[in-house]
Amino acid sequence: MRKFGTILLAAVCCIGCFAGCTPENDDPIDVNGMVDVWAAPSTAKYMQDGRKVGDFPSAEEELDSDFDYPEKSNHTLQFSGIRGEDVGYQLMLEAKTDIRHYNFEVDGDLVNSSTGDTISKDNLSVYAEHYFEVYQPRVFANYYPIVGWYPDALVPIGRYIDRRQDKVEEGNVQGIWVNLDVPKDCAPGEYTGTGTLTVNGATRQIEIKADIVNVELPDEVHARSAFAVWYDMIGYGEGDSMTEETYRAYYEFMLDKRLTPTNLVPEAMTSIEAFVEEAERAAKDPRVTVYSAAQFVTPENTKADAVTLFTALAKRNIELRNSGDETTDLFKKLMIYKYDEPAVNNIPFETLENYDKAIYEAKKQVKTMLADYPDLQESLMKAEHLVTFSAEGISEELYATETEGGVQTWCPIITYFNAESSRQTALERLASNDREGGEDVWWYSCMDTMPSPSYHTDDIALSPRILSWMQFDYKVSGNLYWNVCNYRYYDGGQYVQRDIYNDPLTYTMINGEGQLIYPGSYYGLNTPVSSIRLENIRDGLEDYEYLLLAEQGIEALDGYEGKGREVLGKYFDSLYTGLVYNRDHAVFDVQLDSLLELLDALYNDTDTAKTIIDGLMQEE
What we know:
By secondary structure, the chain is α/β, with parallel strands linked by helices. 29% of the residues lie in helices and 22% in strands. It contains 13 helices and 26 strands. The chain has helices at residues 157-162, 231-238, 244-256, 272-284, 302-322, 349-367, 374-382, 420-430, 462-473, 532-555, 564-573, 585-604, 606-618; strands spanning 29-31, 35-41, 77-83, 86-95, 102-106, 110-111, 118-119, 124-134, 148-156, 173-181, 189-199, 202-216, 224-227, 291-292, 334-340, 384-389, 409-412, 440-444, 478-481, 489-490, 495-496, 505-507, 510-511, 530-531, 576-577, 580-581.
């Protein structure tokens, strides 16, 4: 099969007034002396001055103004993926004069010349990268961000043009993000097409290629997540356009990125009856991984509240089973997330123990209602009761038993997992059978996690993506994040208003903390606006499915049973140690292409798959 390459040196034919002008492969395309153009993967991010984010000197080194990156020799939007996946790529414009207007439009359907199959042009979406001035960057260890303009918000390019923001000053770089939504029924193979770049009225044709592998991304999301949407914060961005439909649009938007909001929409939280009704829909939605019911289980009346909640869910689930629905499980995605960072918030361990014990006793009581449904009993006893931990991590003082409360789902901050001993402790808790239902382990990202991965605006593009690889590798069940729509600024004491599309500082000295999306009403949209960070989180979650499919494929091969994790470890070894990762996106891109090649072989050519695996196992 064709080997997937990260950088394709493809010349682009010229049209219109530039016919006959063929650029050299080692130079960006020049458009009539106005702009240089090159294409770059979604794992790279470029500041407005042309510097690649992360390509910064140490405190003692001089800034280098010659940003001669290898990807500048690539002129093709090159997508590689599997059926049902979303794949992003970037077209970069470097202005050699003031640009008063630019646009990029896909010319027509992508075509597989060998088979005649097509991918509709409607499956390609084009966005302008909106830049933010970071005037207070974060500095950690060997990573030195610099002040300047960083790209993040991804605005549909037509809306950007409508607001007359399609301008680039001489010497600046402007990114255009193109997203390919690969159809589920897409035939495998190489597809080609073109798009038209317009700059100050002049046009240039850009080549588009898509290599699609005959493997399908599952609808079900296996990497669990709880990314809170602060519904009461949305109005500070969306203003007078707020409705119940707005809340649901935010909820659905996150699900489409393979992320689950921690809570269901506000309407579902008005009563247990409303919650059960909405939970049923969520339980049947393969995109949803959790729904929290913490507000219905108070510290003052924990056991009685929990019994009331569990009983309502159990009654409805029994009704569904009696009506012939044998698959819906209302407990499988249930979460109670009440307590956050006990050390920071001065919450005594005794409070956690009492709350957990009451919930466990309520589970045991309601379990008897489900005697005819052992699968529902199991899900009820495993229902998440999650507590986040900052400095204290996983504490033996909170190990629960049949008679003593503690913690059912541990959720330490990600930096806890940097130590091998901590990762081993987490695995031990995952294997615990100290009480029925066992324990689970999640992690969360918040504030100062660098040089471990972060969701900060001034971190590299790869940072949010690599976290999903680590999550798979370390067997962490879920990922929690405290807010995705922090449309205000927290100054250390209170939240105050800020200019959302101009000021990236969301939290004391941190850019983008708690905000992964932007208000859509500013651009006349009924949905939020995505970000480069969110797209890379989504890509990481799709990578998680790659890894899971690869593990399953390896385990299914004769003679390779039990070898899945060992084989995949060869990919992980070059990408990170603990949670400190290789910040060179080119290294990641090579490993991703190699993993995709393995996936193709596992599900379409097992002899080739065995050859690839044997080669990996021989590597030092």
